[in-house]
């Protein structure tokens, strides 16, 4: 199964991995968020392409959800939060661009080496997609490990979830339950994150001293 | 629904009622089983866990009514948060039962994800800096675990795809188990690694346990009880199901060795960590890691006897650990602190609570008359029978753990009592019901239960 469908899918999957790598070394918040938005847009394109190739109309819904929530709403909301927290200009102490990227490339190689022989039976498209999806997942993990800031950890986690959605759509005919649930969980997760970010800010900025006075030894 | 209930008292009562109803419904499942559907499944393995789950859920709701009243008086929580708390509690119970009942690997994943999110919200309910940090850590690690588990789930679906065909059937336990022989073993192996790591994070196994002590220590005590007693079991149930799937395929790698390694690592590591705890809830959180390690180890060893012991240990650990958290919650309220160094002489200042606590610790440490002793004894004997060399680290880990618990218990329970911070209207009933059940199980197991567990153990393999 070569030809156009395969090439386009390959291009989109490759783009996703490339953007994951780019996420790794962004050291400014706003740039990070823009790259993440691009990541989500590419994801929705890839999902839509899968919907077209597999002629599975329900995947278009997944693509739309990815585009709306992850490509637009969440980046904009995170942008606002970053603005309110006033951490937009901080340059994070990332482990170091060189080692991180090398590690990332090693992870991509690893995931391809792991997935290729295992998926011999599956068709070509699925094989390619799974290898790329695993590398996106691993790069997301790497990002969560190397970052200290809560916002960039969240971005790392969401790029990881993008990889998962990509894997789920690559698996032919996987029931709708999963896609909706993934999108749904992202939504809930985001609400949780939003609440937490604000709470953390509240604690760390204003109530810190009061909180120390009030702790009465009940909290260790 | 409970979020809309105005008064906290009413909320608590409704909470108890709802839990009682779920418990009754689960007992009904014992008698009449609904037919297997696309999404839901009831068989020997999960009925046992559901009954256990709803029972502990019910007793915990009873305990939480008295506990929460005290938190409200001392100003730790406001009525608004309580409404939220009760709503989340029922949501958590629903999610856990759904995870146990699910016939589809996808649905099970969704339910466990839902359970994770509700517990994250509950761990952070005190809104202190520590609680938020604990909740954040739990959220991040739990999500990573759950993400890895989803990847494993997708791989299992892919393995089933060529055999079963597209659609919902390729995710149902019933069809997966019957066709597992024909699946591609390499894909299954890879999937199991992801699933074990993913759900293992939620079980609290060794390299991925970091969230567990924090979440247990900072969240409200009823939640610690439910987390330790139930949620760890539910996550382990997922691992167990996939283990059955892998054992059905002869060419796939034996899942046992991986589980043995992770189980032993958790056991020994947690047993050593027990010595250095200064916070009473953290102490018992590490003890949970230890016991989940023992359970994982038991199922890793496999065979009828070890699996039987593993099941028994799951039940006993749930009952005992939740009982201990009930006691610990009251202890912390009475003394106004969770620091071990500041709690002394409980048996003198509060005889009933103190001696109850001693009983609970004796039970969790695996002292003879209690049920945990029996299951641990069975695990050790079957290890000697099957893998004699592995028995050495196992027994060493067990002994180290017991030593730490007894050491801490002596300090906590005996000696000159420290001053009290306040009175408590403790409800001792749930605590002693649990301890009594554990004691009965240790002295005498009903024949019906034994045959049932045997059947399940044969299923697990």
Polypeptide structure, described:
Chain A is mainly α and 220 residues long. Chain A is 82% helix and 0% strand. Chain A contains 7 helices and no strands. In chain A, helix 5 runs antiparallel to helix 6 and helix 6 packs antiparallel against helix 7. Chain B has 461 residues and is mainly α. Chain B contains 18 helices and no strands. The longest helix of chain B is centred in the first third of the chain and has 36 residues. The chains are: A mainly alpha (220), B mainly alpha (461).
Summarize the structure in short.
The complex is a heterodimer of chains A (220) and B (461). Chain A has 220 residues and is mainly alpha-helical. Chain A is 82% helix and 0% strand.
> Shape of chain A, please?
globular
Shape label of chain B: globular
Low-confidence stretches of chain B: 1-8
**Kindly state the mean pLDDT of chain B as a whole number?**
79
- Give the H and E element order of chain B: HHHHHHHHHHHHHHHHHH
Rg of chain A, Å, rounded: 19 Å
Briefly note the structural class of the backbone of chain A: mainly alpha
Strand content of chain A: under 5%
The number of distinct β-strands of chain B equals: 0
Helix fraction bin of chain A = over 70%
**Which structural class best describes the helix and strand composition of chain B?**
mainly alpha
Low-confidence stretches of chain A: 206-220
Distance between the termini of chain B: 42 Å
- Series of H and E elements of chain A: HHHHHHH
Rounded mean pLDDT of chain A is: 74
């Amino acid at each position: 199964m070569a030809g156009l469908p395969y090439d386009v899918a390959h291009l989109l999957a490759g783009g996703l991995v490339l953007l994951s790598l780019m996420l790794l070394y962004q050291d400014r918040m706003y740039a990070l968020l823009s790259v993440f938005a691009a990541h989500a847009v590419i994801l929705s394109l890839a999902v839509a392409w899968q919907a077209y190739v597999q002629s599975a109309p329900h995947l278009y819904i997944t693509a739309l959800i990815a585009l709306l929530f992850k490509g637009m709403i969440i980046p904009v909301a995170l942008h606002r939060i970053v603005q309110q927290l006033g951490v937009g200009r901080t340059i994070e102490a990332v482990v170091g661009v060189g080692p991180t990227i090398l590690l990332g490339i090693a992870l991509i190689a690893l995931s391809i080496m792991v997935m290729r022989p295992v998926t011999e039976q599956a068709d070509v498209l699925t094989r390619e997609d799974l290898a790329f999806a695993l590398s996106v997942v691993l790069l997301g993990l790497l990002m969560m490990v190397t970052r200290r800031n809560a916002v960039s950890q969240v971005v790392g986690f969401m790029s990881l979830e993008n990889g998962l959605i990509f894997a789920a759509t690559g698996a032919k005919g996987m029931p709708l339950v999963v896609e909706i649930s993934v999108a749904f969980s992202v939504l809930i997760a985001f609400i949780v994150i939003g609440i937490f970010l604000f709470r953390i800010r509240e604690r760390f900025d204003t109530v810190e001293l009061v909180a120390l006075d009030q702790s009465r030894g009940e909290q260790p | 629904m409970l979020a809309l209930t105005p008064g906290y008292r009413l909320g608590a009562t409704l909470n108890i009622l709802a839990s009682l109803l779920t418990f009754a419904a689960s007992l009904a499942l014992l008698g009449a089983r609904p037919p297997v559907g696309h999404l839901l499944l009831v068989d020997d393995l999960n009925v046992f866990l559901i009954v256990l789950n709803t029972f502990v859920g019910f007793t915990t709701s009873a305990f939480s009514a008295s506990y929460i009243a005290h938190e409200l008086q001392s100003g730790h929580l406001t009525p608004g948060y309580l409404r939220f708390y009760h709503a989340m509690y029922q949501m958590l119970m629903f999610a856990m039962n759904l995870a146990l009942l699910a016939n589809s690997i996808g649905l099970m994943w969704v339910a466990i994800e839902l359970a994770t999110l509700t517990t994250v919200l509950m761990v952070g309910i005190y809104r202190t800096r520590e609680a938020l940090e604990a909740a954040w850590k739990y959220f991040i690690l739990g999500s990573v675990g759950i993400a890895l588990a989803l990847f494993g789930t997708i791989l299992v679906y892919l393995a089933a795809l060529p055999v079963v065909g597209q659609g919902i059937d390729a995710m149902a336990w019933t069809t997966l188990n019957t066709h597992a022989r024909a699946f591609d073993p390499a894909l299954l192996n890879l999937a199991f690694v992801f699933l074990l790591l993913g759900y293992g994070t939620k079980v609290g196994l060794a390299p991925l346990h970091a969230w567990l002590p924090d979440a247990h220590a900072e969240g409200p005590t009823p939640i610690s009880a439910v987390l330790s007693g139930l949620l760890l079991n539910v996550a382990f149930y997922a691992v167990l199901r996939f283990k059955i799937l892998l054992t059905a395929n002869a060419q796939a790698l034996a899942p046992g060795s991986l589980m043995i390694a992770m189980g032993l690592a958790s056991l020994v590591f947690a047993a050593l960590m027990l010595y250095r705890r200064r916070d009473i809830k953290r102490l018992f959180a590490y003890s949970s890691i230890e016991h989940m390690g023992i359970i994982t180890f038991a199922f890793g060893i496999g065979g009828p006897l070890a699996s039987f012991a593993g099941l028994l240990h799951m039940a006993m650990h749930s009952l005992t650990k939740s009982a201990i958290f009930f006691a610990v919650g009251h202890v912390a309220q009475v003394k106004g602190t969770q620091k071990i160094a500041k709690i002394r002489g409980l048996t003198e200042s509060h005889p009933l609570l103190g001696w109850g606590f001693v009983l609970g610790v004796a039970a969790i440490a695996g002292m003879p008359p209690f049920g945990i002793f029996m299951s641990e004894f069975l695990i050790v004997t079957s290890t000697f029978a099957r893998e004699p060399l592995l028995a050495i680290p196992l027994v060493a880990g067990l002994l180290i753990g017991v030593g730490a618990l007894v050491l801490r218990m002596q300090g906590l329970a005996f000696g000159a009592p420290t001053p009290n911070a306040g009175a408590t209207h403790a409800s001792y009933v749930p605590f002693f019901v649990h301890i009594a059940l554990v004691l009965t199980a240790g002295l005498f197991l009903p024949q019906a239960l034994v045959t049932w567990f045997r059947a399940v153990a044969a299923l697990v393999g």
